[in-house]
Amino acid sequence: MNSPANGSVRVAQVGCGYWGKNLVRNFSEIGALEAVSDLDPETTERFASQYSVRGMTFADVMSEPTIDAVAFATPAPLHASQARLAMENGKHVFLEKPLALTTEDALELKSVIAETGRTLMVGHLLQYHPIFAHLRTMVQNGDLGDVEYVYSNRLSLGKVRIEENVLWSFAPHDLSMILSLVGEKPNKVRAQGHSMQTDGIEDYVLVTLGFENGAKGHVQVSWNHPFKEQRLTVIGSKAMAVFEDSLTEWGSKLAIYRHTFERTNGVPVPSKADAEYPEIPIGEPLKNQCQHFVDSIANGTRPRTDVDEGLAVLQVLEQAEFDLAKARGSIDPETPYQFPGQTA
Q1: Burial 203-218 (b: 16+ CB within 10 A, else e)
Q2: Fewer Cβ atoms within 10 A, N terminus or C terminus of the chain?
Q3: What is the pTM of this model?
């Protein structure tokens, strides 16, 4: 099955619920939506009618030769098996985060990609946010100097889950951004959390990161917080940046601070500078993400958030979850984390 010509990629959206409905809308708006499928037949019928596309069962999507790609917004435990089945049936795949729940499953998906030649892209949405893209370019161009510390807070009151903890629900986006900015995988991962609403399901998690190049970072996530905060802060050797996505005004979401330090009697004293607000064209991150997926298929290029990027994020999640499991008592506290394939 060859990649379709540019502009002719036909996508089936599987899962049209809380988040899937947004993918339906965006794939429709870029002219790529061919079909919809949901476990609930009434939901399938409603979206098929609303967007004038075919409503199909999952089995029909898998066997339909006119479907080039499948976008999945389904429960995380199904991601690996559904993605594998789709690729084995000749479909390109978009997977909402996380890529999988275990490194072993992710490595298996990587093998299936090699065998089938299909494209797989992970929905790390903020990689496609125009403001984060601008920040990433600034970092890559050295405008902030060496990245010394990066931290991200993703905090809100709800939506509380009982099938997964806040680490798996919130942190993938932040980890994806931090790994992208630092430019390497962490060599140290530690995590601690607290369950307040449901036993064994952490509502608050703090992940700390260390990197070979000397950079440090942390991710703080919670759905048991009095107000919404989505803030990514980058401390560089030349300048600092704050991406605050929870602000409503687009032009205020990215602030650059060129503070400096001078020593007075051997003591570092800060010299504060006014915030700079770069002009960045407004764009919808989800639409950019959907378009990037379609373009990657049409042009035969690797998506920015491909299987390797998804795997890097998953490995951090897995190490952090290991620490949380030890704190819960489900793993012996003296047991060291081992990457899959390692031997003691």
Answers
A1: bbbbbbbebeeebbbb
A2: C
A3: 0.92
